[in-house]
Write a structure and sequence with these properties.
The protein is mainly alpha-helical. It has one domain. Helices cover about 55% and strands about 0% of the residues. It is built from 4 helices and no strands. It is elongated and about 60 Å long. The termini are far apart.
């Protein structure tokens, strides 16, 4: 039977591993909240989701590379 301290340790270990992986993706952007904001860091504790400021690069740097589905949606006339 695992103790509460062990489960807490495992959770923190996984959180820091995910944070390190995310920070490695944008190591030159120190303005990202995942470096300092505790709330942003806590997002990596339970679910391994990417940082919101630099997660999807297509949306973060403008719509340069649209997917086929997005291109079709933008080309369709609006039907109300």
């Amino acid at each position: 039977m695992r103790s509460r301290a062990f489960r807490r340790h495992q959770t923190n270990r996984h959180m820091w591993r995910r944070l390190k992986e995310d920070r490695n993706e944008h190591y030159d952007n120190l303005q990202c909240p995942c470096w300092t904001d505790k709330k942003a860091m806590a997002r990596f504790k339970e679910q391994p989701q990417v940082c919101s400021c630099c997660g999807n690069q297509r949306h973060a740097w403008g719509k340069k590379n649209l997917t086929m589905q997005e291109r079709r949606f933008l080309c369709e006339p609006a039907s109300f």
